[in-house]
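Reopening this ticket.

The earlier resolution said the output was attached, but the attachment link was broken on my side. Pasting everything inline this time so it's all in one place.
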Amino acid sequence: MKRRSAFYIAQAAVIAALYAVMTMMQNVLLPGSASMAVQFRLSEVLTVLALYTPAAIPGLTVGCAVANISSLSALGPYDLIFGSLASFCAAVMMYALRHVRLWKLPVLAALMPALANGIFVGFEIDFFFVNQGYFHFPDFLMQGGLVVLGELAVLFVLGLPLCRLIERSGFDKKLRLSQARR
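Inline output:
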C-alpha cells in the first residue's frame, strides 16, 4: 500500500472542507438552490481541481458526502450514496481527461460532472422522490436533464474561466509540484 504524504491528505481535506462549507452556506443563503432537482451548486466549480491534483478525488467525494449528510432535503440518505458516488466518478473521469484540451480548455473533462450527476442524481430523484420506488425512464430523462443543465451552467460559466485563471496564475504548477512530494 502506497503511503500518502501529509501534504496530499491536507490538500484533500481542504478541498473537502471548501466543498462542504460552500454547499451548506448556499443552502442556508439560497434554500434549495444547491439540493433540489434544478440545482446550481456553486461548490461544483471545485471539481476543476481534479484536473490539477489527484487529492481532489477523495476531497470532492468526502466534501460531497459531508454536504449531503447535512442536507435538510428528504433525499439526504440517498443523496449521501448517489451524490457522493457521482462526485467520485466525475473526479476520476476529470483526472483521467486532464490533458485533453479543446481551445486550450478542458472542455471534455468539464462535461464529466454533468454526465455523472445527470445519471446518478437523475436516477436518485426519479426513483426515490418522483416515482417513490420505481424507475420511469421519461421522468429519469427529465430529472437527469435538469441536473445536467445546472452542472453545465456551473462548469462552463464558472469552472472553465477558473481553469484559465488557475493556469495563467501558475497555481496549476504549484498543485502539480505537490504531487512530487507524495
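Reporter confirms the inline version is readable. Residues 122 and 142 are 8 Å apart (CA to CA). The radius of gyration is 16 Å.
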